[in-house]
Design goal:
The chain is about 20% helix and about 35% strand. The strands form three sheets. The chain has an eight-stranded antiparallel sheet with strand order 1-8-7-4-5-6-10-9. It contains six helices and 16 strands. It is globular.
């Protein structure tokens, strides 16, 4: 286990770490609660959106799915080949594999007003810098604000361990952020970066892989892009305009930061929120686009900041 992996026994020993900062009793308590709640999220059996164990577990070849326009508890499974046949996206099994290899869960213990609790989001690997896995996610997932204070957080990689991270980039124009996860000696084993498409996606089919709600498992959401439009910058007063992609896809709050891949397996966008026009969130998803130029710029910035 690398020194960057977070374990219960290391809570006190990490007191000098700049990313852990376990210097106060409040932070230590938040860390303990984060572990307790994250352990519950990491049950061996698939759990539903509310963290209860699913009565039925998936059969061989089945994966958890969320279909646009169809309500789900988080315990619906479908065979990947069946999904491919019904959607006409023949490489669905490959898209699922790409998504499961490249995504990770961000678990955070947060305070909103007088209430505290654990929330989660999704991230996707976009590169490696030394012994760190560079991942993209939604800005609102990792950002600490006056209304939502992040007391502690970690990324659960595919080995089931939690790793510390540093926030490297906060995009002022779009709901996007870049983090560097301290995967140490296990970086090559755990970090499988994807490549972004060259242009902003405006139509076509895709697939989203995410951790919706409070489930402990990745879910597949097939998507059909409706269009892209300019939006005001994410941060008020920032110079420039943002962009938002609208897609027919079923996602939930924990899906924030999740990647949408096109049918060739290229990263094209990150989930940011549900609709605000009255349409249900099990029918429409709003995403922020990601291009190869974004990916190259982000990686250059992370390397320079190292």
């Amino acid at each position: 286990m690398s020194e960057s992996t977070i374990t219960r026994g290391q809570q006190e020993g990490n007191a000098s770490s700049e990313s852990s900062s376990f210097r106060t009793s409040t932070e230590q308590q938040a860390t303990s609660r984060l572990f307790d709640e994250a352990d519950a999220l990491r049950a061996s059996s698939i759990t539903d959106l509310k963290q209860a164990q699913c009565t039925r577990q998936p059969a061989a070849g089945e994966v958890p799915v969320m279909r646009a326009g169809k309500a789900t508890s988080g315990c619906d499974y479908e065979d990947l080949n069946k999904v491919a046949k019904e959607t006409g996206v023949l490489n669905v099994p490959n898209l699922w594999q790409t998504g499961t290899d490249s995504t990770a869960r961000v678990v955070l213990h947060v305070r909103k007003g007088t209430e505290e609790g654990t929330t989660q989001g999704t991230s996707v690997a976009i590169g490696k810098v030394g012994d760190q896995c560079v991942m993209a996610t939604a800005r609102h997932v990792v950002e600490s604000t006056t209304k939502r204070q992040v007391l502690n957080s970690a990324v659960e990689m595919n080995d089931g361990n939690f790793y510390k991270y540093d926030v490297k980039i906060m995009d002022p124009l779009n709901d996007r952020a870049v983090i560097a996860v301290k995967t140490g000696a296990k970086t090559d084993e755990l970090c499988h970066p994807v490549k972004a498409g060259e242009s902003v996606i405006s139509s076509g089919n895709g697939a989203i892989v995410s951790y919706p709600g409070n489930t402990n498992s990745k879910h597949l959401s097939m998507a059909r892009v409706e269009g892209v439009k300019d939006e005001p910058p994410y941060v008020a007063g920032a110079k420039g305009t943002g962009k938002e992609v609208t897609a027919l896809a079923h996602t939930k709050k924990g899906s924030s930061g999740a990647p949408m891949f096109d049918t060739a397996g290229n990263l094209r966008a990150l989930v940011t929120r549900g609709p605000i026009d009255g349409r249900p969130d099990d029918d429409v998803t709003i995403l922020t686009p990601v291009t190869a130029q974004d990916q190259r710029r982000w990686m250059d910035e992370v390397r320079k900041a190292k």
